[in-house]
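Quick one:
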Amino acid sequence: MAEKATSGEKPADDKKSSGPNQGEGDYASAKVYRDHQREFNESGKAGEKAREAEKAFDGKEGDALRRAEEEGKRRSHGEDPLLKKPKH
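Output:
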C-alpha cells in the first residue's frame, strides 16, 4: 500500500507511468478503442443503432435528448474547420 502524501507530495504510485505507451497519448488504449470501433462498424449494427436513436429522438425521450444536444452545443467551440477543408 502506498504511503500517504504529506506537505503536498504525491504518493509514489500516483506518478504517471513511464511505460512506452504513456506520455502525450496512451497508444495502447487508443488502439483498443479504434479496434472496437472498427469491429462495431463491420458488424453491421451501426444502422440498427442509428434507427434506435431516431426512434428515441422521436419518442418520449426526445425532449431530454434535444436538451442534452443543446447543452453539448453550448459547451462546444464549434465545428472543427479541418472537417470542411477540401482534400487534395
